[in-house]
Write a structure and sequence with these properties.
Strand content of chain B: 5-15%
CATH class of the largest domain in chain A: Alpha Beta
Oligomer: heterodimer
CATH topology of the largest domain in chain B: Ubiquitin-like (UB roll)
CATH superfamily of the largest domain in chain A: NADH-ubiquinone oxidoreductase 51kDa subunit
CATH topology of the largest domain in chain A: Rossmann fold
Helix content of chain A: 40-55%
Largest sheet of chain B: 5 strands, mixed
Strand order of the largest sheet of chain A: 12-11-15-13-14
CATH architecture of the largest domain in chain B: Roll
Number of helices of chain B: 6
Radius of gyration of chain B: 19 Å
Shape of chain A: globular
Order of helices and strands of chain B: EEHEEEHHHEEHH
Distance between the termini of chain A: 66 Å
């Protein structure tokens, strides 16, 4: 790859690449992020490549392998440009037919997505309800870009914003633009990004400012950052170059959790390509501005997503937070001024500098501009990543995009913000998704996890799960968080096992708020949220566990019994599935479960075709 | 010089002074456990919390680590501060009841019960021993390992340390595992501290020349029999 040494050279490269495009040529797009690959996208890719070669179609049909598009429930899927045809849950056996149909310009009606409410097939992705209500500013670019081909990124106007900014804007202008956009940190706290950048730019002490991309994404169930890193790593690099230029930073670090091997691989490739092309390193595009990015891998600690612990981790020390002041912007890595932003925040920067702050601020509300990617998971029909404008009511996300509940259940609540967040009950689904309103309701926006829960979710069990996670991930430095999470978990464990008392609830309500304001860092300060918010909105479930020793959702193992009812036909499937040998019964006669041997794994219930296994 | 307001009273201090130092200078009592003059502050025990700021933005910070700021409003005994101190002491008693330091602190705040499952740990992870070993004794033989519940203090991989100077400073400074009682007959000991016999860093075998500031000591006496 030839280094690009000036803005003109870059612009002519961009022109060359865009001129090459033949827009009418069909392209088979196969999303192969981690979710796609786990569902079998690699088979589709292999078969497609073989077909294109064997049938000599390589000049007629293009293949683009991309990162995740967001509709993870339907993976492995195929998108065909420029027609916008979408095939969900593709069976590898049908791949040959699909390639053939693309060559002929036909659509295979029997493989299309079926709208669950109307029963009709939908041909184009944009018409599918899941996609229709979204504003896919960031995620749509995952469809257009092959993450490991930098030329593909440039072809799609990648690095154009950076090149123009570096050559014709003053660093102050960059800061003003980001401030005007109203962008707020997407890592969870929602601090105005422009303000943070201004503070770094104003730092005069130290030598060698750092900017960091926080790609630790520790929330269980959240994978928005992963799909941005896997699908469009260059957008983060471009954002960071712009950020470094605006703030005067010379060194960049991407701190990525080690549990994201594909993201790490794509990032390393992208960094190497950007360096080779001269977009990173010394004297970028001949402007005299030098900046380079290194990658640092995490080592499996949720707490290292907290900025001061992250700084320690980068320095090679134990990831323990420390009190602020001094803030990282004043004293960070090795005592130097350091700016830390989340992956999604960085990904928004090229968009802001490309189309301008005004354009960006048109989406969302006045205090909460832009879009936010949520990982919508749980007891809902359409799980995946959804990108919506800030301020959209929760109800729209859950029902219109998410498609509503599965199995005709009633949705009870959503959990937002991961383990640091709280639950919002169904009666409050009219609430708009914005930083302030969610916090007022007792939850937080967090990094964007949204877990949907129905009547089969036990709120006590949910609080217990998140508290256990936080207890294990607490760094343990400050006494109140370490002991507080441990004791909260103890109490929840007692309640879910039928050993709870009403005094326990009072104790939680006394201890919880104190943990919130006495903890040293954000982990501790938000650790009581799961239990306090479930207690606030679903106190009756807790009371039932305590007073009646009963779990209404049928989840808490110590409080439920599995029994076989009169629907049983004696087929014996459950008996075979039982690993504890707890089921007895003759052929064609009603079987029975011995509660003393039953380990409550639920295997019998899942294999029974007659709904004969009940939990009480 | 920086002027701040502690409990409404103005006090001028040099830059770099912590809120704890400023409050102590004024004579306001603030309990501490993991703080020791001469060692770097750590902020782990959360007993020294004070409330700063006003209105809805007021928050609690550890005074031992917070540097004085011009015009800062500090309250050393607001209701949230007292509530926090009391729960922390309750939790300390629930984990480490045999420490006289903790018992004294608890009784000073009128804590008469603790409502959690009783544990008998002999380390509260305040880190005084770690900082003592590194900063005062220049040995750096012990440190923190793991996180959360599993966090502990010891030598790397629990191997007997060659850097350890056998000075006993870790024993001396520890507020929890210290053997405070000089009774040689354990049945007459007040607080049952002699139930604590294991200092955090050393294997007892092979350390015959260990120096200890606690003799005569019930633990060693018991061990002798």
């Amino acid at each position: 790859m030839e280094k690009v040494k000036s803005l003109d050279e870059f612009l002519s490269l961009h022109d060359r690449l865009t001129v090459d495009k033949n827009p009418s040529l069909p392209t088979l797009i196969i999303p192969a992020g981690t979710c796609g690959q786990a569902s079998g996208a690699n088979d589709l890719i292999r078969i497609t490549k073989r077909e294109l070669l064997n049938k000599k179609l390589t000049e007629k049909i293009k293949l683009r392998i991309t990162g995740c598009h967001g509709f993870c429930e339907m993976e492995p899927s195929i998108l065909i440009e420029p027609w916008g045809v979408y095939y969900p849950k593709v069976d590898p056996k049908k791949m040959v037919d699909i390639v053939e149909s693309v060559a002929k310009g036909e659509v295979l009606q029997n493989l299309l997505f079926i709208d669950p409410t109307t029963g009709n097939p939908i041909e184009k992705q944009v018409d599918i309800p899941f996609f229709k209500k979204q504003v896919r500013t960031l995620l749509s670019r995952n469809e257009k870009v092959d993450p490991i081909r930098i030329y593909n990124y440039i072809e799609n106007n990648g690095y154009l914003a950076m090149a123009k900014t570096l050559s014709s804007s003053h660093p102050r202008q960059v800061i003003e633009e980001v401030k005007a956009s109203g962008l707020r940190g997407r890592g969870g706290a929602g601090f105005p990004t422009g303000l943070k950048w201004e503070r770094l730019a104003n730092q005069t002490n130290g030598n060698g400012k750092f900017i960091v991309c926080n790609a630790d994404e520790g929330d269980p169930g959240a994978y928005m950052d992963r799909s941005l890193l896997e699908g469009n790593p260059h957008s983060i690099i471009e954002g960071m170059i712009i950020g470094a230029y605006g703030t005067g930073a010379t060194r960049g670090i991407i701190y990525v959790r080690n549990e994201y091997p594909l993201a790490i691989k794509h990032l390393l490739i992208a960094l190497r390509q950007a360096n080779q092309l001269g977009l990173l390193g010394e004297n970028i595009l001949g402007t005299g501005f030098s900046f380079d990015i290194k990658m640092v891998r995490g080592a499996g600690a949720f707490v290292c997503g907290e900025e001061t612990a992250l700084i320690k981790s980068i320095e090679g020390r134990m990831g323990e937070p420390r009190q602020r002041p001094p803030f990282p912007v004043e004293k960070g890595i090795q005592g130097q001024p350091t700016l830390i932003n989340n992956v999604e925040t960085w990904a928004n920067i090229p968009i802001i500098m490309g189309s301008g702050a005004q354009e960006f601020a048109k989406v969302g509300t006045t205090e909460n501009t832009g879009t936010k990617i949520f990982s919508l998971v749980g007891r809902i029909k359409n799980t995946g990543l959804v990108e919506v404008p800030m301020g959209i009511p929760i109800e729209e996300i859950v029902n219109q995009i998410g498609g509503g509940p599965i199995h005709q259940m009633k949705i009870k609540a959503v959990q937002t913000g991961g383990p640091s967040g709280g639950c919002i009950p169904a009666e409050m689904f009219h609430l708009p998704v914005d930083y302030e309103r969610l916090t007022k309701a007792g939850s937080i926006m967090g990094s964007g996890g949204m877990i949907v829960m129905d009547e089969h979710t036990c709120m006590v069990d949910l609080a217990k799960y998140f508290t256990k996670f936080l207890k294990e991930e607490s760094c343990g430095k400050c006494f109140i968080c370490r002991k507080g999470t441990q004791r909260m978990y103890e109490i929840l464990d007692d309640i879910s096992a039928g050993r709870g008392t009403l005094e326990h609830l009072d104790l939680i309500e006394e201890l919880g708020p104190i943990i919130k304001y006495a903890s040293l860092c954000g982990l501790g300060q938000t650790s009581p949220n799961p239990v306090l918010s479930t207690l606030r909105y679903f106190r009756e479930e807790y009371v039932e566990h305590i007073e009646k020793k009963r779990c209404p959702a049928g989840v808490c193992k110590d409080l439920i019994t599995y029994t076989i009812n009169e629907n049983c036909t004696g087929c014996g499937l459950c008996l075979k599935s039982c690993s504890a040998e707890a089921i007895r019964g003759e052929k064609k006669e009603r079987h029975a479960i011995d509660p003393k041997r039953c380990i409550k794994c639920g295997a019998c219930q899942s294999v029974c075709k007659f709904s004969a296994v009940e939990t009480r | 010089m920086i002027t701040l307001y502690i409990n409404g009273l103005p006090v001028s201090v040099e830059e770099g002074t912590t809120l704890l130092e400023a409050a102590q200078f004024m004579g306001f009592p603030i309990p501490t456990l993991c703080h020791k003059e001469g060692l770097s502050p750590y902020g782990a025990c959360r007993l020294c919390l004070v409330e700063i700021g006003e209105g809805p933005k007021a928050k609690l910070v550890s005074s031992c680590t917070y540097p004085a700021e011009e015009g800062l409003q500090v309250r050393t005994a607001s209701s949230r501060v007292i509530q926090a101190r009391r729960i922390i002491l309750e939790l300390l008693l629930a984990s480490c009841p045999q420490s006289k330091t903790i018992q004294d602190l608890a009784s000073a705040y009128g804590i008469q019960r603790q409502r959690f499952k009783q544990e008998y740990e002999n380390c509260i992870l305040c880190g005084l021993c770690v900082r003592m070993c590194e900063e005062q004794m220049m040995a750096k033989a012990i440190g923190f390992r793991s996180r959360g519940e599993k966090r502990s203090i010891g030598t790397p991989f629990d191997i007997q340390s060659e850097d350890c100077r056998r000075c006993g400073a870790c024993l001396y400074i520890c507020p929890a595992c210290e053997l405070r009682c000089t009774y040689t007959e354990p049945e007459r000991a007040i607080c049952g501290a002699c139930a604590n016999l294991r200092p955090p860093c050393l294997e007892k075998e092979g350390v015959d020349d260990m120096m200890c500031y606690l003799s005569p000591c019930a633990a060693c006496e018991i061990k002798k029999d």
